[in-house]
């Protein structure tokens, strides 16, 4: 197994260091910020706060060259050093608050991170690591960093108040499960979008899956994907009749989640092949996302192929 990449580990340190601060800041930030993001969605004050905090934390990581966020039109050059071999520093793609419409209804949300060894837009094959924070009853972070996939509990150190500096980050990361693999026996499914907006082939596939698995859908991709990570199954935000590219963003959401799921022995698809092979045109491209146990994703591709 390769040695841990110090830049990758420093990125996850920085993301973990922000997590308790983001969480603490949410109660007062459930209102609209008055702005729209590059995808044309209303941005909540919580989205803006998380985005700014993560920019600050990740800019301080040596070896991070650019910060690319769902909430910003362009990549931000954060000046990370170029390596001795002439390779560029990593580009870190962030969905600062995933599932932020759940802020009003006080349900699960998260932060998604993808670390690319290429300037964005890039394919998911350029990811060196990816993961997500889940703000559930417990704050957890799932990390796929090339040494396997693990789940950590992220907690503020007693008495710590802020982000802290360097070694004094003010948080502890405790590994609670490592070498995670998708359970062999799938149990759950969660599909986004409205049923009338689903193409016929996907609706038929969904009918079959409903007979086999239990519905778990909470409206935040990270929460719904974490159900699949924990219990096995399939998550989809499918192509819709009037939105063939679905809703989720390739760089910030689909690629990092596909990297995590494939690193756990599962499969990802855009409907015809691995998400990680999708060639992007821009950093805010959307893509249909299907992830989970291989057999369920294979069946999905076969069902869509028949259309
Ligand atoms: O409300 P819908 O249409 O089911 O959409 C839910 C999806 O949209 C998202 O909230 C989009 O993410 P953001 O909150 O980061 O924009 C996903 O987390 C989730 O899977
Ligand atoms: Mg999101
Ligand atoms: Mg978001």
Unreliable stretches: none
Mean pLDDT figure: 93
CATH topology of the largest domain: Fructose-1,6-Bisphosphatase, Chain A, domain 1
What top-tier CATH class of the largest domain fits best?
Alpha Beta
Got a strand count? 15
The CATH architecture classification of the largest domain is 2-Layer Sandwich
The overall number of domains is 2
Tell me the name of the CATH homologous superfamily of the largest domain. Answer: Fructose-1,6-Bisphosphatase, subunit A, domain 1
Report the β-strand fraction as a percent range.
Answer: 25-35%
Major β-sheet annotation: 8 strands, mixed
The best one-word shape is globular
SSE run: HEEHEEEHEEEEEEHEHEHEEH
Specify the oligomeric state: single chain
Could you say which structural class the secondary elements and strand pairing correspond to?
alpha+beta
Which bin fits the share of residues in helices? 25-40%
Task: List cofactors, ions and other ligands.
Answer: 1,6-di-O-phosphono-beta-D-fructofuranose, magnesium ion
Please state the CA-atom Rg, rounded to the nearest Å: 18 Å
Number of helices: 7
Distance between the termini: 42 Å
Q: What do these coordinates show?
A:
The chain is an alpha+beta fold and 307 residues long. The chain folds into two domains: 6-177, Fructose-1,6-Bisphosphatase, Chain A, domain 1 (2-Layer Sandwich), CATH 3.30.540; 188-305, D-Maltodextrin-Binding Protein, domain 2. The chain is 29% helix and 26% strand. The strands form three sheets. An eight-stranded mixed sheet has the order 4-3-5-6-7-8-9-10, sandwiched between helices. Strands 12-11-13-15-14 form a five-stranded mixed sheet, with helices on both faces. A two-stranded antiparallel sheet has the order 1-2. Helix 1 (6-25) packs antiparallel against helix 2 and helix 4 (200-212) runs antiparallel to helix 7 (294-305). The longest helix has 20 residues, at 6-25. The mean pLDDT is 93. It binds 1,6-di-O-phosphono-beta-D-fructofuranose (FBP) and magnesium ion (2 copies). Residues 95, 98, 221, 253 line the site of one magnesium ion. One magnesium ion is lined by residues 47, 70, 95-98, 100. Homotetramer. Pathway: Carbohydrate biosynthesis. InterPro entries: FBPase_C_dom, FBPase_class-1, FBPase_N, SBPase.
């Amino acid at each position: 197994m390769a040695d841990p990449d110090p830049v990758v580990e420093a990125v996850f340190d920085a993301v973990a260091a922000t997590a308790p601060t983001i969480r603490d800041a949410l109660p007062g930030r459930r209102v609209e910020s008055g702005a729209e993001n590059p995808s044309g969605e209303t941005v909540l004050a919580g989205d803006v706060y998380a985005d700014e905090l993560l920019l600050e934390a990740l800019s301080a990581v040596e070896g991070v060259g650019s910060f690319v966020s769902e909430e910003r039109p362009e990549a931000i050059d954060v000046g990370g050093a170029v390596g001795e071999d002439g390779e560029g520093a990593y580009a870190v793609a962030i969905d600062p608050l995933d599932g932020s419409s759940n802020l009003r209804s006080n349900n699960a949300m998260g932060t998604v991170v993808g670390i690319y060894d290429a300037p964005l837009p890039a394919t998911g094959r350029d990811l060196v690591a990816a993961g997500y924070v889940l703000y559930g009853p417990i704050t957890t972070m799932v990390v796929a960093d090339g040494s396997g996939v693990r789940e950590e509990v992220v907690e503020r150190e007693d008495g710590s108040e802020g982000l802290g500096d360097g070694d004094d980050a003010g948080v502890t990361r405790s590994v609670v499960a490592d070498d995670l693999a998708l359970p062999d026996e799938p149990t759950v499914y969660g599909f986004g979008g409205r049923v009338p907006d689903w193409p016929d082939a996907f609706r038929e596939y969904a009918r079959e899956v409903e007979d086999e698995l239990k519905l778990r859908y909470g409206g935040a991709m990270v929460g719904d994907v974490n159900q699949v990570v924990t219990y096995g199954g399939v998550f989809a935000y499918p192509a819709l009749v009037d939105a063939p590219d679905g809703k989720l963003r390739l760089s910030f959401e689909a690629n990092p989640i596909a990297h995590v799921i494939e690193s756990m022995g599962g499969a990802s698809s855009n409907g015809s092949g691995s998400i990680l092979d999708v060639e992007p045109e821009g950093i805010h491209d959307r893509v249909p996302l299907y992830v989970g146990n291989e057999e369920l994703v294979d069946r999905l591709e076969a069902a869509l192929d028949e259309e």
